[in-house]
From TrEMBL:
The keyword Transferase is assigned to this record: no
Protein name: Oxidoreductase
Species of the source: Streptomyces tsukubensis
Keywords: Oxidoreductase
InterPro entries membership: KR_dom (IPR057326), NAD(P)-bd_dom_sf (IPR036291), SDR_fam (IPR002347)
Top-level division of the source organism's lineage: Bacteria
Domain Ketoreductase span(s) in chain numbering: 8-217
Family: Belongs to the short-chain dehydrogenases/reductases (SDR) family.
Gene Ontology molecular-function annotations: oxidoreductase activity, acting on the CH-OH group of donors, NAD or NADP as acceptor
SUPFAM superfamilies registered for this protein in UniProt: NAD(P)-binding Rossmann-fold domains (SSF51735)
Amino acid sequence: MSGRLDGTVALVTGASSGIGAATAQALAAEGARVVVAARRRDRLDALVGQIHEDGGRADAFDVDITAPGHAEALVERIVDDAGRLDTVVNNAGVMLLGPALDASAEEWERMVDLNVTALLRVTHAALPHLVAAADDGPRGVADLVTVSSVAGRRAAANSAVYNLTKFGVTAFSEALRQELAESHVRVGSVEPGAVDTELAHHIRPGVREDTQAWLDSIETLKAEDIADAIHYMVTRARHVAINELLVRPTVQK
Ligand code: NDP
């Protein structure tokens, strides 16, 4: 297999399902050696098996990136094993919707811990390696892609803390982009609308049903549609940076 990401190493967080799994497959099909990280080992092993079957290269790391030190250890293991890190897709996330009055503090903390704090830890650990990869890598450029959301551009009732996390990571991404532009580390965010994944399954009963009913009532995006957007971002020529991609289902208002 040969492709535009030959000789590069990519990390995709939250790759055991949905957008992360589809993205890992897309990057591997383009020649990247892909490290897939999440907690569910069985899902990761199945994904790695599929990528190998398709002729790609992949390794699985089962890790809870919210656990102290684990995000940093993940990045160091990758660089120790593979010698480099060219692409990071910050994708792991959780969306626990519901009225703020009824929410538990634990739900809010879970969203902040994963969508923000763990993402910062992965990013902080990865940045020096991305700068090095842009400097000496096969493409002369490295990529940091954050999976934000339409919820990072438009706030809505029952989504306050999810909005907080996604507005936050979009802003973080843009500020970082400016800092790293001259290093040829491209920092961009992709902002999906409704995608058919397991994301809504974690919403508490009583709220989940309404979200699921809405998802079932429209023609949603597939995980592969967002993987396609990420693939587009990371395969541009060295002088082209896609800073933000907002991708909604056609019928989503
Ligand atoms: P999924 O629930 O399918 O994927 C979430 C991924 O995050 C899973 O692989 C999960 O794996 C992983 N994850 C959860 N907790 C942890 C943890 N503590 N450590 C490591 N990995 C973890 O949903 P999506 O694919 O939809 O979500 C991916 C991203 O897309 C999220 O950031 C989400 O906010 C964003 N998004 C999704 C939209 C949608 O409509 N689906 C719309 C807009 C944005 P595991 O449980 O094995 O750890």
